[in-house]
Amino acid sequence: RHTHTSMTEADVHWLAPCITCHAWNKERTLLALCPNNNEIHIYEYKDGKFAKKFNLKEHDQVVTAVDWAGESNRLVSCSQDRNAYVWNLDEQGTWKPTLVILRLNRAATHVKWSPQENKFAVASGSKVVAVCYFEEENNWWVSKIIKNHMSTVLCVDWHPNNLLLATGSSDGHCRVICSAIKGPDKKRPTVFGKEKAPAFGEVVADHEAGGWIHSVSFSPSGTQLAFVAHDSTLSVWELDPAVEVNPNAIHKIVMKCLPFKQVIFLDDTRLVAAGWDCNPTLYAKGGSGWAQGKELDDPAFKEKKEAKKASAFDKFESKTSRGEDERGTTELETFHQNTITFLCVITRSEAAITEFTTTGSDGRIVFWRSKTLEQAFSALSV
Amino acid sequence: VDEGACKEALDKREKAVNQAITGGDFPGGLKLALQDPPLGTTNQDVRVASARLVARCLVQIKEKDIEGVIEPMSNTDLDLLMKYIYRGLELAENSKELLKWHEVVTKKAGIGCIVRALAHKQTV
Question: How much is the pTM?
Fold first, then answer.
């Protein structure tokens, strides 16, 4: 009836007390993460092990998001200190930061490179999104501000066409906004059947959900937009820029569990979401729409961790940091012991199902491999 | 939010529910009490009266019958019922019965239902 997953302890690594965000380089040999402080740590991942290589210290407050531009090998980071830095690796092998003046008066919450890596968008608590591009003549990054939000912008995701940006906000709205900039972009997008190409910052699609929108994600083909809201719902909007916006083409899944914090499309018919239940959940699209999800981290299928005798250090550690003793345990059955706050796709190919990693408030990074995903998807009845 | 329409709907609802209760049809009364919820109304009296109306039906249904009553209910209805349960608990009336309903509804609709009752801005 159920197949045994092939996940092992080797796929879980405890790197910090708490991780706010993470990003992989193109080859998946380097991992950048923020251990819930003002630093960015870069680890080398080789032979299944992590080794800390760099400590990037430039921000003054917690780094809320990092994104790695694969092709150009640049990092962008944003922080509660209202700043963003672009990091370049110089010939000596050091990461050199370049400050980007965002003109924000509140924390930056999220940042994403555009698909062509010539722009990046920073979401912020000042109810705006700063879209930044590099001005060659002045040799610096310039930001253009998108308003149109009534509260904190919590997340952003770029459309594959490099010209549209989806945003999620704590005003409960999921918006698609034109982010074509004269200079880096050759033309403005003609989208959604509009006669006139929208201007920069113009909202071309807007939907109000039942709560804060924690994460938005475009499908690889750019014809669907998924978003997760704090009222424990996951929605997928059929939003093809080639046709007019249909405000009713939204498939809403009402969940039984705690809300999701992250959602990412794995391919056009599969997506994964994770959040406060510490358990990545897979969804697949079938004939009748999106099916109810399958949790990836099912304690029933896992190789049960042998009740190993806790070492003296473990006992001391749990007593001092969590006030636990042997009598009770607050350990969860899932690999993640606290909220999953970030999800990063590792591989995306035509043939194989993608792999991804999750990091959470428990400081762990967990690898979710092809085999585990395949087994879960085959168990999912669509 | 049309406050006038909310008040009118409440009066209609009260009449229909009272009729059902007098006839002894408590599940039917509940179904009627859940119709036309005064979502987003600022009128506290309408709010309280609507919640009390639902609670009246809830307390009449025997504990062993609760599961059967909520079994055919849709996700939307369960979310609405959960919101009314919280309103009732706020009024601190019939807490014992409401907590039993809360337990059974959560078993069916999950924690997500509770999250929605707390997260939605437009509520009863």
Answer: 0.89
